[in-house]
Amino acid sequence: MKAMRQGDEGTRRLLLSVLVLVSPGMLSAQTIAITGGTVYPVSGPRIERGTVLIQNGRVAAVGANVTIPAGAVRVDATGKWVTPGLIHAGAGVGLNVSGLGGFSERGVQGDVTPSFSPAEGFNPAEPEIAVTRTGGITTGVMAPSGAFMPGRAIAVDLAGDRLEDMVISPGVALIVNLGGQSRNAGGGSRAGTMALIRRLFADAQEYDRRRADYRRDQIQELAAPARELEALLPALRRETPVVINASREMDIRNALRLVGEFRLRAVLAGASEGWKVAAEIAQAGVPVALNPTQDIPSFEGLGARLDNATLLREAGVEVIIAAGDGGGERGLRYQAGNAVRNGMSWDDALRSITLAPATAFGLGDRYGSLEAGKVANVVIWSGDPLDFVGFPEKVYVRGAETSLRTRETELLERYRQLPVVYR
After folding, report:
1. Please, what sign has the CA dihedral across residues 364, 366, 372, 378?
2. Which of 48, 141, 226, 243 lies at a 20 to 30 A Cα distance from 197?
3. Could you read off the pLDDT of 108-124 as tens digits, one per residue?
4. Contact by Cβ (8 Å): 369, 354
């Protein structure tokens, strides 16, 4: 049986090897100069009448005095706002199948399946991908669903015809749930769940140290099959973060204990009572991904409040906004605008949907800001992107302009003038 497990792991690795970090074939070779707009690099102060130069799918230069090569395609952004493409850290587009009663490709059966990646369930032809881009969103981080340890999140650029051209990483983070639904995995108790996590992490480390003994069947029974323990190792080596879903104060404190015990890179998700332990979260250096408009008490967080994001940020916590509004995932920017309405600074709100998620998920060297060398995911806005008055006029993904035409716009055009009905 163990030999078969090792074979399954080899097959999985071979399958995932086709998913490249950034497919060279998707990088546009065109040179584009976006000129005259107000540029918000996020990593630095805004630039009036700035230029963003794009070459070979990357940002080549950003500034007020950029030399534009001969032959470059010039895009006049005078009076416009220019930002990095937005990153939705709680996306589901491409995995949630439209019109089928909430059917999703996000999970598999079982409480402990950290090896699962939903990457091959992602549908590049999903119509909602184009709709999401109309909200200025160019990248999504999508987590599998499940009650306890459902698998690994994927990171995807939202333009392309093939999975291989769109997936940035098939395993950008390990997902762990510490909320009430996880109690069943621990025998009906949160304490049991915590004990199971510790055993899984300890057994993964033991397996890693004694692989030869495992192959000879000279090791005690472990808490999970080898392929699942193997999938925990990147997180235990701090190569990828662990996203820990925890909303109640006690669950957040439990999450911080795990982070300290195993020296994890982590992201807290949910954290509706995070404001209660903001100082401890900041001290641990753990970013928080949340919905800034969550203020309805629930069993997972009786202390939810609208200024949660603001209080966390004021305490020094890196905040990631990871929820769309009632209009779908494209409404991510409106959620950031709501955070501003409830006290967060505008600059921090823009950071929360660009550089903050990129950094938290290990993508900050390539995504999240307008800097030389980074992937050219760029949006030109008609006005303030965090307000209803602004909307994307052009969206570039990996240096190529993408279409903002969707089924919605096609229906609008089709029925803009209704036919005359003669009686």
Report:
1. negative
2. 141
3. 778 999 999 999 999 99
4. yes
